[in-house]
Design a protein that fits this description.
Number of domains: 2
Radius of gyration: 22 Å
Strand content: 15-25%
Distance between the termini: 17 Å
Shape: elongated
Low-confidence stretches: 127-132
Helix content: 25-40%
Order of helices and strands: EHEEHEHEHEHEHHEEHEHEHEHEHHH
CATH superfamily of the largest domain: P-loop containing nucleotide triphosphate hydrolases
Number of strands: 13
Strand order of the largest sheet: 8-9-7-10-6-11-12-13
Structural class: alpha/beta
Largest sheet: 8 strands, mixed
Bound molecules: adenosine-5'-triphosphate, magnesium ion
Length: 379
């Protein structure tokens, strides 16, 4: 969705809600706030939304006339604007309906000012043209054990550091539900309970996401579920889409660790990503698997060209069975994003201590290689 201005229009009959938005956004520059003090049913002139980047509608989700008025506005806006609904308690059917009519988010009242601020900033940052908007970077393993989780964690740490310097937030999401390695490697308790957010994820909102996320001492947020080894993913594409929508509503940058096996929601996650990296290792089967993964993704997803990261690459000319760097480049013509050094001792120590690689050894080669790949391949 393209957002061209930084004006927020809030419609609410409740003075306290209007004051709360102004208070929440007081310290934020370059955002104009316009408020309409009325019920959604009373609004007849929709031109008030014309130049809005974000429309916030405070409605009573239990009243039919309010829902009909919301629907009319959504039809009039034709998906051109971000719309956030504020409402009292509502049932799951209404939550599902909000998703169907393409409401960007819905917040349950009473609204906390920080929640409002997060939602507003997300939209307005998207509108700003400083070239530092957030993005979703997805890591897909070409095969098992190639280092996808290690690379995703390190990429998240580096993104957090660089984005944090300009006040932007980063979250790592572990979608490899069978493995659950991100929480393990970071020594965190996984808190995501996807079974509790409703069949289509309609119960998930910012508050619940906060409860279901874990925070690493480095400052990185992690969304991860307890490992479910040997169980195929039972979650629907709607649940995963809702999860990622909510996560990207709360964080500027999202890094995703994908599973090894294709799932029904694989395509939609990849389709919603700004950048996709296929991770493999420096072996002949690894390079073949990466080529197959690239071909498969390219055939299914439009608009994002996946690129390969060759992990555990030897700096020596010869490696393992005798692969040369030139062989790698030839095998991965035009799709090679770069290679990452092999240092088992460093990675093991970081995993055993639950810390980023830089905490074990500042200026290490793995971090440097990945930094080059992540920041020089920016979209
Ligand atoms: N650059 C590296 N140098 C040396 N060892 C590495 C490197 N990256 C990862 N490893 C090691 O490789 C093993 C697998 O790593 P990791 O768990 O990140 O892979 P994965 O692709 O996520 O595996 P899985 O298929 O189980 O999800 C780990 O023992 C890790 O320590
Ligand atoms: Mg893994």
């Amino acid at each position: 969705m393209t957002v061209e201005s930084s004006k927020i229009v809030l419609l609410s009959p409740d003075q306290a809600v209007r004051d709360s938005l102004r208070a929440a956004m007081r310290s934020v520059e370059r955002i104009e706030i316009s408020t309409l003090g009325m019920n959604v049913t009373e609004l007849t002139d929709y031109s008030a939304f014309d130049d809005a980047a974000l429309v916030i509608l405070d409605i009573d989700g239990r009243k039919r006339d309010h829902l009909l008025a919301l629907q009319k506005i959504m039809i009039w806006l034709r998906g051109q604007k971000n719309v956030v609904v504020l409402t009292d308690s509502f049932d799951d059917a209404v939550g599902r309906w909000f998703l169907q009519i393409r409401v960007s988010d819905f917040l349950r009242k009473p609204i906390r000012p920080e929640e409002l601020r997060t939602v507003c900033l997300k939209t307005v940052r998207g509108a700003s043209s400083d070239g530092q908007g957030g993005e979703i970077i997805t890591f897909v393993p070409a095969a098992g054990g190639v280092g996808n989780t290690t690379i995703a964690i390190e990429a998240a740490m580096q993104t957090m550091k660089s984005a944090g310097a300009v006040g932007r937030t980063t979250c790592l999401v572990d979608l490899d539900f069978a493995g659950g390695s991100c929480a393990e490697y970071l020594d965190l308790e996984p808190r995501l309970e996807l079974g509790e957010i409703g069949p289509e994820g309609e119960r998930l909102d910012i508050q619940l996401l906060e409860v279901m996320s874990s925070k690493h001492a480095s400052g990185l947020s992690l969304i991860a579920a307890p490992a479910r080894p040997c169980e195929p993913s039972q979650f629907s594409p709607q649940v995963i889409a809702r999860l990622l929508d909510t996560v990207s509503g709360c964080f500027d940058n999202v890094i995703i660790d994908m599973p090894r096996y294709w799932t029904p929601w694989f395509d939609s996650v990849l389709g919603g990503s700004d950048r996709i990296f296929v991770v493999t290792d420096m072996t002949v089967p690894g390079l073949r698997a990466a080529r197959r993964a690239i071909a498969k993704i390219a055939a299914r997803i439009e608009g994002v060209a996946p690129r390969v990261i060759v992990n555990r690459a030897s700096r020596n000319f010869l490696f393992g069975g005798g692969l040369r760097n030139a062989d790698v480049e030839r095998a991965l013509t035009n799709t090679l994003a770069g290679s990452v050094a092999n240092n088992y001792q460093l990675v093991r120590e970081a995993i055993d201590r639950g810390v980023p690689l830089a905490a074990v050894k500042e200026g290490n080669k793995i971090s440097a290689d990945l930094k080059r790949i992540i920041f020089s391949n920016a979209a």
